[in-house]
Give the backbone structure.
Amino acid sequence: MRSIRSKVLVSILLIAVITASGITVIFYVKSAATIEENYIASNQQQNRQIIESLDQAMQEVYHVLVEASCDEAIKAKIKEYTTEKEDKTLAEMVGLLQSYNERDTAISSFHLIIPDEQVLVTSEAYPKYKKVIERRSIQALIKETENQAGPLLLNNLISGRRPHLAFVEPINDNGTVGYLCANIEERYLYYNYISEMRNDTIKEVMLLDQKNEVITTGDDRQGEALTKTVKVMEGKFKDSGAGSQDVSIDEETIYFYSRAPFSRCALYLSVDRETVLGDLTELRLYYAGILVISLIVASILASYLARLIYRPVQNLTSTVKHVSEGELSTRAQVISRDEMGDLAAEFNQMLNQIELLIKELIEKERLKKDAELEALQYQVTPHFMYNTLNSIKYAALIKGERELADLIESFVELLQASISKKGAFLTVSEEVHILQNYVRLQEFRSNTTIKTVYNIEPAASNCLIPRLILQPIVENAILHGIDIKKGNGLILISAVVSGERLEIEIKDNGRGMSKEQIRTLLNSKVKKTKGFTAVGIPNVRDRLELYYGEKSQLRYVSDDRGTTVMIYLPAAYDEKE
Amino acid sequence: MGKRITGSILILALLLTLCSCKSTQTEMPPRELIIGVVAKCANTEYWMSVRSGMEAAAKKSDCRVLFFAPNSEEDAEAQEKLASSLIRRRVDVLAVSPIDAVNEPAYLREARKLGIPVISYDSAFESGEIAYIGIDNQLAGYQMAANLAKRLDYQGEIGIVSGEQDQMCHRERVEGIKRYIETVPGMKISYIESGYSGAKMSGEKVSELRRDYPGVKGLVVTSAVTALGIIESSEAAGLRIVTIDVQEDVLYALKNKQIIGLVAQSGYDIGYKTINYARALKTGQVKEKNVIIEAEFLTAENVEDYLEKHTQ
């Protein structure tokens, strides 16, 4: 991932993926929780309604039972039967019970037990009464219901069929003379309260009495399976009392529990969580679709943004590449007004500066070359001239003209020095040797003696200086300074190293120069001169500046006693310095 | 740097996800308080308004009211059975308007045994040990007698038609009436007819009383239902009647000047305050043993104001 563009793209995509995934997961989890909570709330509401409706029915049954148990007519009939023991009285009791039975549809039948007579009278069509009820059964019933608030699951004293739900109330007439039971059939409770709850989501549904004995269930489970379910329920809702409503959730199942405040009957049902959350399958697909669409949109946007961000970078990179390949005229396009735009503008500015510096450098180099070329251009001393002059020198020696031969040699050496291609620099001692030759030739030319004193420090003699830098100054002193005709001309040449600086001084005892002359000389442009080497003082000045810049100095001090020229330049022993 | 940012984003996403994963265990509200209520009767307007007040208070304070009543205000046996049944069901508080306030019923003993608090409303127990929520019945009787006396110019005979004297409310009202009449030298109570707790007096009985006590010009009736029965009879013409209990037909009778005064005992208020008291009792916030509710005395002149105030 070397490209900024790919980094930006990946970063944006990463953020988009994490954000979209996070949001999707949160929404999914929230939706699942909401669906479950709504289901629970809805079921609780339904259960509450069912249990309240059941409780209301039970209250009404109990109310009718209490009213019947206080009925003076029934009490009178019991008394009458106890005294007379006539079946007619029992039949009349049946009529009274039936009238109460009709008061409430939840009551399947009334049973009136007269314990002392072991008689049971019913409100049913058949049998209307049963005369011989086992005393043991009656005692069991009394014991079971004593101090207990109904309804309870009781065995049917007539048929002995499976238990049914019943309220029992004693009939008091100077003591307990009978017991009245209001019976409610299991099927009545099933069809009125349980059957409607049977659906695909509900796993188990049960109605239990206050002792957690099963009154009716939504399926055919019996025996151990039923006992197991009751135990599960008791384990989960052991702390839930009358009038409570509770929910318990485990990994797979949601358990609902409601207990009626009056009858204390409990409605229990369990629901498969997976079934409840079945609607989530569709929702899951929906969220997955949203996620995919979000990611596609994010990818497109990321690509566009990456391109947008990368374009100025690419432009700058391309410009840098072109510049590095030498196309210095290339400029970066300023596309944006942001930091990248500033960077491009600054880069362009930097290129402009570099270009300017390079131009200046080239110009300086050109000027330096021009100066050198100019210095060389006028030193036309072909090889032929050396050979010829050498021949003449040897001819002079053969003829015994030793002085002439020396002059010719000096001249040859001077010529060689001026046109030598050995390099731009000579040592001070080499330059001094050139000066010696030059002065000798000038003496010969003018037929006079020019006193030249060389005071070169040993440390200075090996210092490198630009070729022919001293000759034009000495030439100037000979031609314009000292008076050759008088024969007292003196030129002092000294060189010392002071610290890292080489200080060369050329002093003559000539007529001197005015300040104006010095200024004109130092400020005049390079031009052809009539001197030997055709290299003038301006040339010396320019070369010093080109080679050493501000590190070099050319100074003229002059009065009527002579002129002193001082050259200061870095003491160098190697051309590379 | 890049790794740090990516790490931070991942941690943030993880935290967000974890935060969103709320526990699915549903928190259930605490078990509601179950208040067993036994009334004297359930099918008169007064008792219906008592029940309404109770249901309203229960709804407001998350209580459950199990309301039972015998078919008539005379059926003490049924009332005791119903109260016993509620005690056996371990209600949190039992509120009773006792039909028999004199004899201590068995359910009070059972309640004491099980530690279930019992309060009385509308009508107190004679013993005075049980907390009472309702109007000052003696004061009500006193007010009724005073207003009737005023309309009779503090002269002449009056009669009293009251409910069962076993019921404290009726007994106290009669006592209040007597206390006042004793202070008026020109007046006397000619008869006290008891046993009309929410029951209508027959026309024949009214006729009989008019015949036997021709000097009686005013009647204090300690139950509105009984008073309504009396004014329906043509034999009651000319009798000035004052009574007690707020119910629509009695207010209408007052507006039409069929009765001259009414102690506005609001069943709704009594019911409402009974449940609040029961709740306070269970939460240990009861300040006074009894709660006496004020009852206005209404006449044809101020009944409109009363109606306007209470129907807004």
Notes: The first strand of chain A starts at residue 109 and ends at 114. The interface with chain B takes residues 7, 11, 14-15, 18-19, 21-22, 25-26, 29-30, 33, 36-37, 40, 59, 62-63, 66-67, 69-70, 147-149, 169, 172, 240-249, 261-262, 264 of chain A (CB under 8 Å).
